[in-house]
Write a structure and sequence with these properties.
5 helices, alpha+beta, about 210 residues, eight-stranded mixed sheet, about 20% strand, 8 strands
């Protein structure tokens, strides 16, 4: 049984990060999906089709890691398996956030199989990076409406590079995660700053 107090707390955190990301232009229209772990086998996740700028408690539902819906009358995003796969494979993951910013969308269409971010100080906000003198090869997966197939591809990449802090889907957006909602939000902020820098650098270099 879902602990109602834990659900209430995680829902409040997801609502807060949804409003924040919408205010920054990273979740236009009803795009994106946000989730947080409730316990070892259940998560809270945004209901499909909810506008994140107006997100409230009715826009958060519970489900288990096998994909069973625990909040009657609610339907999660079609991309839910991309969240569940991460929670199942790593118990330390406490939140998964997916945004649709302009910079992530545009760069993911131009970068090819990977987007390399190098020599940025803000890279140090990501796990395992202690100097700006580094290169992060962020995978870009082709967009795919078959989410189960896409989740398998992402999991294969994570097996090769388990320290990976996020990934892009071409023409779609960014996924990242953290030990809790605040940690994942910090990574979203770092990634979005880096993607904006990369977009500006490329446009000015023409």
């Amino acid at each position: 049984m879902v602990d109602p107090e834990v659900f209430k707390q995680r829902a409040a955190e997801l609502i807060g990060v949804g409003h924040f990301c919408f205010s920054r232009g990273w979740l236009p229209a009803t795009s994106g999906n946000l989730s947080a772990r409730l316990d070892a086998s259940r998560i809270a996740i945004t209901v499909s089709g909810r506008h994140k700028g107006a997100l409230d408690a009715s826009g958060i539902m519970a489900m288990d890691l096998d994909g069973s819906i625990l909040t009657e009358g609610c339907r999660p995003s079609a991309e839910t398996e991309l969240h569940l796969m991460l929670y199942r494979r790593d118990q330390s993951i406490g939140a998964v956030l997916h945004t649709h910013s302009v910079n992530a969308t545009v760069l993911s269409r131009l970068a090819g199989a990977t987007l390399t971010l190098s020599d940025y100080e803000v890279l140090k906000a990501l796990p395992g990076i202690e100097t700006h003198e580094t290169r992060l090869a962020l995978p870009v997966f082709p967009n795919d409406q078959d989410i189960a197939r896409l989740a398998v591809e992402v999991e294969r990449a994570l097996k090769r590079t388990p320290e990976l802090p996020g990934y892009l889907i071409a023409g779609h957006g960014l996924y990242t995660w953290g030990s809790n909602v605040a940690d994942a939000r910090r990574r979203i902020e770092a990634f979005e700053f880096l993607l904006e820098c990369e977009t500006l650098t490329r446009s000015m270099a023409r």
